[in-house]
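check this one:
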Amino acid sequence: MRRNTILIGLLITAVLLPMWYVALHGEPPSEEIAIDESVTEQRPLEGFVDTPNKLSPSQVGVIVWVALFALVGVLAAVHQFMNRAVRPPDDAQTVADGGTVSLPWLDTETRWVVEYHDASDAIEGLVAMGGLTVLAIVFATLFTGEYLTLARTQYFGLYATGMFVSLALSTVAYYAWFMPHIEVAEIRGH
């Protein structure tokens, strides 16, 4: 593990531990209100994960910070994937400084293409895009079915998360496999 990663982990831990300590001493949990089972068979409070019925503001704050740190980690991982997994290695053939690539919207008197790697257009990218598109359609259908029927509504968040994550990953897959990598140099006056 790299030193910077360890330092970032220690910093996050140093921030979250006091917050979590305060959050543990928040409001006591409230009592669950159940639906009369003799009237209906719907169980909206049932789910595959036990969740608290009420959270204190400090507990919500800790959860939000953990979610934000997780989002930063996910964005960093996606960025590393896009730049390392499908881009050609450094010793691959590139067009550099006055090569055959002509991009008139980038080539000006003060800006020029330094490095250009064409899109890989690999079959893996097409399979990933197709699979993620099907997954987005499935989650959108489940979300709509949950909304339009008298089904339990506790899976709205799960279906919406699946739909948005599959759409986001299809954007990542498109960028990784079907966009060329262009590095541009520019003369800037400061």
Q: What stands out?
A: Residues 97-189 form one domain.
